Amino acid sequence: IFTRLLMGCIKATGTGIGSDLRVGEWRKTLFFFLCFQSSIRASRGTIGGYFLAGRSMTWWPIGASLMSSNVGSGLFIGLAGTGAAGGLAVGGFEWNATWALLALGWIFVPVYIAAGVVTMPEYLQKRFGGQRIQIYMSVLSLVLYIFTKISTDIFSGALFIQISLGWNLYLSTVVLLAVTAVYTIAGGLTAVIYTDALQTLIMVLGALVLMFIGFEKVGWYEGLQEKYSTAIPKIIVPNTTCHLPRADAFHLFRDPVTGDIPWPGLIFGLSVLALWCWCTDQVIVQRSLSAKNLSHAKGGSVLGGYLKIFPMFFIVMPGMISRALYPDEVGCVDPDICRRVCGAAVGCSNIAYPKLVIELMPNGLRGLMIAVMMAALMSSLTSIFNSSSTLFVIDIWQRIRRQASEQELMIVGRVFILILVVISILWIPIIQSANSGKLFDYIQSITSYLAPPITALFILAIFCKRINESGAFWGLMVGLAVGLVRMIIEFIYSTPSCGEEDRRPAVLKDLHYLYFALILCVLTAIVIVLISLCTPPIPEEKSQLLLAIRGSTWEREILIAQCTSKPAEGGREESHLDDNTHFFGPPLAAAKPPCWKMLYLWFCGLSTSPTPTLSQEERAALERRLTSIEEKPLWKTVCNVNAILLLTINVFLWAYFG
To answer: Are 214 and 360 in contact (CB under 8 A)?
Structure first.
């Protein structure tokens, strides 16, 4: 139905490429069949089944989902655009992720699993006690999702569709968001992860096809080096050099002062952002927490690390190819010309990837690439929608409604996704008017202002036992205040166009956002440590979970709360075991409801069956299974060997393109 709707819209617009999309019809049919199957088979009637896929996922869909959750349409547009504007250095953002992914599997995930948590703010609540850090983290994460994930993915996806198909921007966005929300709401994390795996395959194959066509067009890598270096638009701004490609375009490591991406920032500042994105961000970590055991979580990290090698070749380099072939459009510098080409006076590098698709892809394959970009958009949005609803339900709604039933929690999670869809649609005009010409820089700069304090807190929470709640909270507040000051200054002083005088303050003009991220992380860590040392430590009786290095071995230290649990309102005793039973307990048989009600219950993932009562022994066994980080020696060795091989390849690539 969705495919026919798209075909009808294309024919109605008279774009003349409706036949191209028939290549994508079988893909969409398979895609929605997989969504439907995973929605039926998924454990959707419990909180754990909906939000953590019943903790039954294997390594390959986890690794594919880690890739596709991060590589959305925003990354296609942003990476290719920044590659067109500045060269290979932006690909270092992808290769840096390999190290963070392995840190996720070997350091962070064992702690999260042992803590038995569903969300990252929940871990901080267990580690420090209190509620203000957990609520702050949940709200900040949702804000980051809206400003750096949902809005940018929607804008970039709509930009691609508008350029390639000539669709109305709002109609195409509403249709895509509606379909995305439907299968996210109906399926839960199992549907999201399996469809992410399919989307990853489609994205990689389609992008590789375009990469080979582009390289053949420019004369492979040697031809790209020659043509990119001379990719100068016909109309330039006199007495300026902004029309010239960078002399260091084919090098990763650039001057620490004059480089557009300075090498110390690329190595150290970017690592701060990478640890936040891959080790503490709910969208990413939720995939690893759905693994059936720690070995599968590690295997997913390794596969994700291998997949992150490829965007340099099938996204960044095609962006450079696009500028080499079409310098007048992609490399425009005259504000009037740029405004006519893409609507942005500061440059049109964002159109590099869709321009390449429209100009180079033959009939049929062009439809495949359109399907790839739709897949990227919907894949990224499904991940964000599901993880956002998890944060809201677990960390915010349960604070408001402590006695909420499981049915209420499931309904609220799905309704919140609908609210996100509405907000996303309303945000489109703002994103459209705020186009700065470099989408990827916008994403990374906003992240640099808000995420480093979170990175500092999680590192200290895991490795430093002395850190307490007061230090953690006020460290976050100081980091947030400093980051907001920089972000507000950047919104006030926009980037000048070519030939315009740069009137921005020195703190904005001379301090790269990657340097700022590193400084902000260190500043937050210092504040956290100082305040923690000046205030009483967390009592031994409080629940904590951290990872300490003792000699050459990793030792997991768990301090379990000794205080007795108090009855909540209504006489219900709160306990972690009860929560896990609530999350994963299978429903009992019940009388069959009417057909209309069965359809409603299926869509919402609800059941009228009562939850079974487990004995103390069964509850203890369930708790041990859900928090176990034991591994079989064989698979532990396999994961370790593959991790070492992956790091070896990664270091070689850094050295070769450095």
So the answer is: yes
